[in-house]
Amino acid sequence: MYASGLLFLVFVLAFGLAQKTTAVDPCPSSCGGSELSVQFPFRLNRSGCGYPRFDLSCNSQRQTILTLPLSGGFIVQNIDYAAQTVWLNDAGSCLPSRLLNFTLDGSPFRAPLPRNFTLVNCSGDATLAARAAMPTLLEVQCMSSGDYMVMSVESRFYGGPGSHACDEIGTVTVPVAWQSVSDLHEDVRLAWGQPACKSCLARGGTCGLRKGSDSEIACTNVRTTGLPRSAKYGIILGLGIPAILCLIGLCSYVCGLISAYGRQRRHPREETNTDFTTVIVPRSFVVMGLDRPTIESYPKTLLGASRRLPKPADNTCPICLCEYQPQEALRTIPKCDHYFHADCVDEWLTMHSTCPLCRNTPEGSTSVTPSALLQSSLSPSSTSA
Length: 385
What we know:
The chain is an alpha+beta fold.
């Protein structure tokens, strides 16, 4: 019962975590094959994933388009979400002509590096004179033709209408991408201050609209220095399940003790009757050596000068491995008729009751056991008593 309930709880927790991690509405992230990633605060086709006035769209060439309220649409070349900047250019490949009427009014963007450029229209010999007077003049090819040449120069280097024979077209304020830019064909760089997601992205989080709000932002999934959330869930489940099982076992043990104590209180006489079981341990019998009279009863031979024995090969004591010498005493073990030095075999037989060679027990031998030794040690005291 406890196991089935525990498994059901684990299943519910795992299913809830899976639902929590997968229940996210998909948002358009690019214009088809475009490599540009569309993220918050931008949104494609006015979807509910972005911030107001950060609307993007896709043209027929699958290019991402940002439309400024008073300046029209521009191709989005790149977006740096951490720096909150966007790079734009003209879809018609003639950005200088678009800059003549360029304004950021009504948009959430600003120009971080604004610079003023002057456009002039030069014809015939006036072109050479203007270039001689202003070496930094650059031709704007998309606005020029065979009869005249349109050129641009940074306004601080422009000498004024009287310094050359060219006609001044106008002065434009350009949000250049870099401080060193002098060619108007390069991308323009815009920045935004709100919504401010720099700190959220710097911490590895995801910036987006707070649930139920269309203007308040929230930072979620912030990367921490500790364990990831999935690892924490795994540790909680891995430690929680054994802890629950241990708690169940402890509760069962305590309930058993309480139940046993209650039975003892209800039936004290039955519980106090103790049955004793008699266990009979068999007495061990350890075979030890022979007693001295038995050893002395074995035949003893004094070896003569010829050192002749019944078996010619028996000329060495198997115990000490020394050759027999004249006048040495040898002892024979009955039944097997093996010869040994009397001193060697006597010491052996006091600890063992078998022949050192064949391990046979001589007939009529009396073994000394611990019980016999104990009885012999107790007999004098019992007699005196």
